[in-house]
Design goal:
The chain is about 30% helix and about 20% strand. Helix 1 (about 20-30) crosses helix 7 (about 235-250). By secondary structure, the protein is α/β, with parallel strands linked by helices. A 6-stranded parallel sheet has the order 8-7-6-9-10-11, with helices on both faces. The chain has a 5-stranded mixed sheet with strand order 2-1-3-4-5, covered by helices on one side. The two termini are about 35 Å apart. It has 8 helices and 11 strands. It has helices at about 20-30, 45-55, 105-110, 130-140, 155-165, 220-230, 235-250, 260-270, and strands spanning about 5-10, 35-40, 60-65, 90-95, 100, 125, 145-150, 170, 180-185, 210, 230-235. It binds NADP nicotinamide-adenine-dinucleotide phosphate. The site of NADP nicotinamide-adenine-dinucleotide phosphate has 24 residues, from helix 4 and helix 7.
């Protein structure tokens, strides 16, 4: 009997938490499947995907740095990923060996916000990298109001506003924040070993939500300051688990058992 499996590919790959998450869910669901981490160097990516395409046990893979752009050329159906988020984080194989690509980051980011009505709400997003693109794509779909992109490169910020059809402004990291309902840090600032992102939060109104995509540490200096100021917070594990949940269902045909999130979060932060 064969064992269906999926995996995460990247270079490096040892740091990935995806195997822990997917194996946890496979066990909870009683699925006799596997989820691996595979180290794939950029030069090896085309051959790797060609080999996996012919493996009937392979359900697909998650894709991380540095392959999220190159892999778009290696699937049969990249959907609208190239023209929207511009990066692919999931590849799926169907029984006829066709490969489809998608990106679950935007849905994973948005899931913890789905109970809020953000229609017309003002939002600030810090950063202009890959994660920021998924965030802006999701927020564009949520019909938010004025968008402020906070970035060290104003040109990159202005280009993203235009690309995602968002109304708003761009400002530098040192400028005072506007009074936004939602503040999202989508930079690597605040990660272990990086400088903190520590803006003055006093312009934010009561009831504002502060969302940090960084998950190591779980409580970043930004989230600690938000707690101190009485704001609601969302940490980076919410998006990490959320994007994995969408991929898990695509790979294994069963919804991720999110009722075990507390246990999973404890495992991920042990
Ligand atoms: P990326 O594409 O490399 O982008 C990094 C962003 O951070 C860029 O906008 C960059 O600015 C900015 N940045 C880096 N150092 C900075 C500094 N010293 N000052 C100001 N801005 C700085 O990386 P990414 O994939 O977007 O990831 C960004 C963060 O989100 C990482 O911490 C990552 O772990 C996290 N993330 C979390 C999840 C999740 O599931 N929770 C998912 C994806 C990413 P420039 O554009 O000017 O270079």
């Amino acid at each position: 009997m064969t064992t269906p499996y999926a995996e995460v590919i990247g270079d490096p790959i040892g740091h990935s938490k995806s195997p822990l998450i997917h194996k946890f869910w496979l066990e909870k669901c009683g699925i006799a499947g596997d989820y691996r981490a595979s180290h794939v160097r950029p030069d090896d990516l085309p051959d790797f995907i060609a080999q996996r395409r012919n493996d009937p046990d392979w359900r697909g893979c998650n894709v991380t740095i540095p392959h999220k752009i190159a892999v778009m050329d290696l699937v049969d159906d990249p959907g609208d990923v190239r023209g929207t988020i511009g990066a692919m984080n999931t590849v799926l194989r169907d029984p006829q060996s066709n490969l489809t690509g998608t990106n679950t980051d935007a849905a994973g980011f948005y899931a913890p916000l789905s109970t809020l009505d953000l229609t017309g709400a003002s939002v600030a997003v810090v950063g202009t990298g890959g994660a920021a693109r998924a965030v802006l794509f999701a927020l564009g779909k949520a019909n938010v109001g004025d968008m402020c992109i906070v970035a060290r490169s104003p040109l990159k910020g202005a280009a993203l506003l235009a690309q995602f059809g968002l109304r708003g402004a761009v400002q530098g990291l040192d400028a005072s924040l506007p009074p936004v309902r939602l503040l999202v840090n989508a930079t690597s600032l605040g990660m272990v070993g990086q400088a903190p992102y520590a803006p003055d939060l006093s312009p934010l109104p009561d009831g504002a939500v502060v969302y940090d995509l960084v998950y190591a540490p779980l409580e970043t200096p930004l989230l600690a300051a938000a707690h101190d100021n009485g704001f609601d917070t969302i940490d980076g594990l919410e998006m990490l688990i959320g994007q994995a949940a969408f991929a898990f269902e695509l790979f294994f045909g069963k919804a991720a058992p999110r009722e075990h999130d507390d246990e999973l979060r404890a495992l991920l932060t042990a």
